[in-house]
Amino acid sequence: MGTDSSIAATGTESSFSPPSGKPALQRDTLFDKMKGLGIILVVLGHLLQVGSDFDENFAYRLIYAFHMPLFFFISGYVLQLGLASKNVSPGPFITKKARALVVPFLSWYLIFGIWNGIPPGLTLHDYIYRFVLSPDYGLWFLWVLFLCFLTFLPLVWMQQKSHRVWHPALLLLSALSFSTIWSLPTGHYGIGLLKSYYFYFGAGYFLRYWQKHLPGVLTKWWPEICIVGFLLLVPYWNRTDPMPVDPFFRKHFPKHAVFLIHAFPFVVALLGIGSVAQIAKAFGDGKAGNWLIWLGRYTLDIYVIHFCVLRLPFLTMTTDPHDPFVILVRLVWTIAFSLAISIFFIRRSRIMSFLFLGL
After folding, report:
1. Nearest-10 crossing angle of helices 90-97, 140-161
2. N or C: which end of the chain has fewer CB atoms below 10 A?
3. 24 DSSP 8-state letter
4. pLDDT per residue over 102-132, tens digit each?
5. Other Cβ atoms within 10 Å of 20 Cβ, number
6. What is the pTM of this model?
7. Under 8 Å CB-to-CB from 20, ≥6 apart: which residues?
């Protein structure tokens, strides 16, 4: 893998060659399939943001219940996966993550400023300050994922330096770290987003560590548990507060309502992640599965470029943006054109690959 970071883990080995029919050897391609499915859902979710009532669109709510937690979960899982074969040195680790995540994060914010222009009433200084204060004005995922790696670096170091008998204590330290981050009095500088997504990164990290020790009944039935549980609970999930399930918790579980209200979206997201894993697994090693593997290795490219592609006139000139066929055409066009820009333009330059893809 090029990097350990889900969307950012595109791999420098990728080249413009459609799937050959055989997946790459010595590589767990399940995560590539999951990332391939995930990036399709990311683009589709943005295409569904039409009108002022898109939050009432069930397809939109289904996607947004888990699609970004999915990439944080994969990032934490892959980080733990890599610890079995390599030692992590803090300096090179931070440098690598800054190159892979922070550099494209900053570069694309500059591009968005040139593309859209600085908003009226803002000076260049205000524009930059707003970006530093609220990274969600840019490609926030890259910055928040970098913060996740930074906060987990001490745990990684302790895991590699301590005896295995002490490793269960890392879970406690991670819980304390999560509690500390959650209680921080500010949401600026990406801290607010870190509060929401640190948990998923940690869930992937520790699931990989203790995966072999999970009860047999759970591992046997997890596909059914995830898919059925997700479909049952996601109708009660909403991106905006309060969620439809909140009054139920307050009425029937008044003593634990606050905890249940906060825990509910995490449970739904984890069930959604498990469902995607099962769907990705079901694709197997056929043509569809290999295309997902190939697409999954370009997730960063699609993620950072598709925002600009969505603004092209071809994608906005339609009388009915809610038409399923129109949405499908726009989805295919957006992904294909984003890939073309990356493969035939950005990746052909070492400088642009570094600035815009962190390669």
Report:
1. 160
2. N
3. P
4. 999 988 888 877 666 667 777 777 777 777 7
5. 9
6. 0.87
7. 290
